[in-house]
Amino acid sequence: MIPGIDDTHNPARTSWVPGAEGHPDFPVQNLPLGIFSTPGGPRRAGVAIGDSVLDLPLIAALLPRAAAACLSTPTLNALFALPAADRVALRRRLSELLSDESHRAAVEPALLPVASCTLHLPCAIGDYTDFYVGIHHANNIGRQFRPDNPLLPNYKWVPIGYHGRASSVQPSGVPVVRPNGQRKAPDADAPAFGPSARLDYELELGVWVGRGNDLGTPIPIGEAGEHVAGFCLLNDWSARDFQAWEYQPLGPFLAKNFHTSVSPWVVTAEAMAPFRVAQPPRPEGDPHPLPYLWDEADQARGALSIELEVQLETAAMREAGLPPVTLSRGSATNMYWTVAQIVTHHASNGCNLAPGDLLGTGTLSAPEREGFGSLMEITRGGAEPLSLPTGETRRFLEDGDTLTLRGTARADGRVPIGLGACTATILPARA
Ligand SMILES: O=C(O)/C=C/C(=O)CC(=O)CC(=O)O
Ligand SMILES: [Ca+2]
Ligand SMILES: [Mg+2]
């Protein structure tokens, strides 16, 4: 079940917190959860509201008991392990506390400016899996890696994924050290080892797993929604030169496990409820998914109406005081498989998902150039370099480049809510 819409989503609801109303990411209709610290203080749970962070342990006495017991821990894993109903109760109470002026005196002392906080990973990530549901990305990139065979025949039957590396997932802001690795130029006799010359990003959504499933017990598709705690932005940094050389036959390995960035706030599945839309119908002639992946309710509301944007700022642009350039604008509706389908498929063999596990959707490219989700697609593998306002060009990312992903959920008659930025700067390779 996908969560329902209630009064916490009411567009008429406003907050007494200065700056919350009209905030592009965090109005009172959002209330994303995260882990933060202040200098000398422990990691603890918080909620973003406008440009403030609400320190949840400080107001635990005002919150529902089940959730309150999980807020002083340095991760959200315990909170995400609770039944979704406990998260709903927490959301309703937070919405009331932050919108009803009568609670202001009790709650305001627990608000901190976000600029004074360090935002951490929301969970201790046991496992991270990256999918490949962006069919336009799969077509575009497949054409470059396998010109005769871009989209393999399993794509429309199986939600394809690979097991990523949890240890190198980092919150937004942590710089990315250019990886060293093996690459082989097409005309070279042997590979060489050194810094990647084709460092790329991948625009993805992250899905935070809520309640887990027992080993050996699959998740029926009708119940997949209850295992999703929320969403973030995810950048699956990719060394395309290493990838092309190493990925056959077992799939991505060192090309993608050196660093993965996530936006630090978890926009809950409940907050996202008004932005769930019908899954676009499959093109004529595509196979009908197997029964374990098919659910009419999921097809009716399983897609996510989230606008996505990627911006690049080079060191020279920063020095010249020029604003970042927008590389692409796309939409999360470009998913061939829904979130419920990837969750159910992942657990279909009895694999156990655990609270705080992270799933990447795969790169979400639109069909057109304006919405491509990686430089590999935008520059067609480097063949069509981008021209920047400084006179620089880019085929792939250079040291000093800062890349930022943003996402905003929108629906008619609703207050838009944002995922917050997922940003990082590239540092030179280390010897
Ligand atoms: O071999 C291919 O076709 C490409 C594989 C990937 O790039 C893996 C990946 O990270 C999938 C994605 O982000 O969509
Ligand atoms: Ca990826
Ligand atoms: Mg990665």
Automatic annotation (TrEMBL):
<feature type="binding site">
    <location>
        <position position="236"/>
    </location>
    <ligand>
        <name>Mg(2+)</name>
    </ligand>
</feature>
<keyword id="KW-0828">Tyrosine catabolism</keyword>
<feature type="binding site">
    <location>
        <position position="363"/>
    </location>
    <ligand>
        <name>substrate</name>
    </ligand>
</feature>
<dbReference type="Pfam" id="PF01557">
    <property type="entry name" value="FAA_hydrolase"/>
</dbReference>
<feature type="compositionally biased region" description="Basic and acidic residues">
    <location>
        <begin position="1"/>
        <end position="10"/>
    </location>
</feature>
<feature type="binding site">
    <location>
        <position position="247"/>
    </location>
    <ligand>
        <name>substrate</name>
    </ligand>
</feature>
<feature type="binding site">
    <location>
        <position position="256"/>
    </location>
    <ligand>
        <name>Mg(2+)</name>
    </ligand>
</feature>
<dbReference type="GO" id="GO:1902000">
    <property type="term" value="P:homogentisate catabolic process"/>
</dbReference>
<feature type="binding site">
    <location>
        <position position="243"/>
    </location>
    <ligand>
        <name>substrate</name>
    </ligand>
</feature>
<feature type="binding site">
    <location>
        <position position="202"/>
    </location>
    <ligand>
        <name>Ca(2+)</name>
    </ligand>
</feature>
<feature type="active site" description="Proton acceptor">
    <location>
        <position position="137"/>
    </location>
</feature>
<feature type="domain" description="Fumarylacetoacetase N-terminal">
    <location>
        <begin position="29"/>
        <end position="122"/>
    </location>
</feature>
<dbReference type="GO" id="GO:0006572">
    <property type="term" value="P:L-tyrosine catabolic process"/>
</dbReference>
<keyword id="KW-0378">Hydrolase</keyword>
<comment type="pathway">
    <text>Amino-acid degradation; L-phenylalanine degradation; acetoacetate and fumarate from L-phenylalanine: step 6/6.</text>
</comment>
<dbReference type="InterPro" id="IPR005959">
    <property type="entry name" value="Fumarylacetoacetase"/>
</dbReference>
<feature type="binding site">
    <location>
        <position position="132"/>
    </location>
    <ligand>
        <name>substrate</name>
    </ligand>
</feature>
<feature type="binding site">
    <location>
        <position position="236"/>
    </location>
    <ligand>
        <name>Ca(2+)</name>
    </ligand>
</feature>
<dbReference type="Pfam" id="PF09298">
    <property type="entry name" value="FAA_hydrolase_N"/>
</dbReference>
<dbReference type="GO" id="GO:0004334">
    <property type="term" value="F:fumarylacetoacetase activity"/>
</dbReference>
<dbReference type="GO" id="GO:0046872">
    <property type="term" value="F:metal ion binding"/>
</dbReference>
<dbReference type="GO" id="GO:0006559">
    <property type="term" value="P:L-phenylalanine catabolic process"/>
</dbReference>
<feature type="region of interest" description="Disordered">
    <location>
        <begin position="1"/>
        <end position="21"/>
    </location>
</feature>
<feature type="binding site">
    <location>
        <position position="130"/>
    </location>
    <ligand>
        <name>Ca(2+)</name>
    </ligand>
</feature>
<keyword id="KW-0479">Metal-binding</keyword>
<keyword id="KW-0106">Calcium</keyword>
<feature type="domain" description="Fumarylacetoacetase-like C-terminal">
    <location>
        <begin position="155"/>
        <end position="426"/>
    </location>
</feature>
<dbReference type="InterPro" id="IPR015377">
    <property type="entry name" value="Fumarylacetoacetase_N"/>
</dbReference>
<keyword id="KW-0585">Phenylalanine catabolism</keyword>
<keyword id="KW-0460">Magnesium</keyword>
<protein>
    <recommendedName>
        <fullName>fumarylacetoacetase</fullName>
        <ecNumber>3.7.1.2</ecNumber>
    </recommendedName>
</protein>
<feature type="binding site">
    <location>
        <position position="146"/>
    </location>
    <ligand>
        <name>substrate</name>
    </ligand>
</feature>
<dbReference type="InterPro" id="IPR036462">
    <property type="entry name" value="Fumarylacetoacetase_N_sf"/>
</dbReference>
<dbReference type="InterPro" id="IPR011234">
    <property type="entry name" value="Fumarylacetoacetase-like_C"/>
</dbReference>
<dbReference type="InterPro" id="IPR036663">
    <property type="entry name" value="Fumarylacetoacetase_C_sf"/>
</dbReference>
<feature type="binding site">
    <location>
        <position position="204"/>
    </location>
    <ligand>
        <name>Ca(2+)</name>
    </ligand>
</feature>
<feature type="binding site">
    <location>
        <position position="260"/>
    </location>
    <ligand>
        <name>Mg(2+)</name>
    </ligand>
</feature>
